[in-house]
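User: Structure with MRU, tokens only please.
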Amino acid sequence: MVSPSPFTNLPATLAWDDDCLRILDQTRLPRETVVETLRTAQDVWRAIHELRVRGAPAIGVAAAYGLCVAVQRVRHLPLDAFRTALNEQAAYLDGARPTAVNLSWSLKRMLRAAERARVTDTLALYRALVEEATRIHREDEALCEGIGRHGLPLITAGCGVLTHCNAGALATTGLGTATAPIYTAQREGIAFRVYADETRPLLQGARLTAYELQQAGVDVTLITDSMAASLMAQRLIDVVIVGADRVAANGDFANKIGTLSVAIASRHFNVPFYVACPSSTLDFQTPDGRGIVIEERRDEEVTQLGGKPIAPDGIKVRNPAFDVTPHDLVTGYITERGIVRTPFDANLAALFGAAA
Ligand code: MRU
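Assistant:
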């Protein structure tokens, strides 16, 4: 598996190879680089649920190929029975994680492609599905490039950029979303600094963002989540760029837990706060952030660190994996078609409404 860009210097997040889905196991990075082969629907469901493949756009692409994996075993069935199995497997995969809209977006798109395919046999329909998944994959790469191009002017010589979680190459199949302007600026030879929040509890910032930016030669400094406001107070942060898992019609958005605190601190210190987001993460069916389902994960993710207990036995725990940031804390959305500013409801709909 080769890197999506020689610039990121990483193995690919995922690849379709020999009718199998191969993923880079992100739970083992940065210490071990392990590529895993997924051969069944259960393999794909677990890989998404356990965050071996994670990040909204990567989950979407993995689900598209995952659906192909899931129906391989029923390729001998008559067309009607195959279509029934296809719908069942899509519903199953859709339950792997609730918050990132890219999962249901890509599965719906696969089912639409199956409905439209003018085929007379099952094998041809299976091939049409692989073609659609490949299209979703290639489009994801292009969306990242577009975000990089439009976000580039936000990164100027000498500036400090803060990011939270991993909205990087590892979270997509291209240059990432929040990292796309960063990689593009690096490519342009602009000198700047990035601060990566470690991102408790699963440390995607420390394990993934710090790793991939360091691999790419970006000047990156790892901080704990609680340091971000203090760095803003010291005027070390000129711009914040984060990713998103779901953007509601009014511009409220869900992203990794802790994003809301960063947005509030940015408002207090007058630091521009941008959300990098491809159109596949827009959800016009959800009017505002109150309708976004937030994934709650296992207590052990909070009570343990590196597999070792760090809290008293029996302690009560909350572990929401995401939070919702209200649209009025957002300076702009960096999309593949340009930067969208307020009013977000009208401007997002004008740019993407019909397409979405
Ligand atoms: O739980 P994760 O690691 O899947 O959460 C990922 C994030 O919150 C990212 O910021 C988001 O998916 C955007 S990825 C381009």
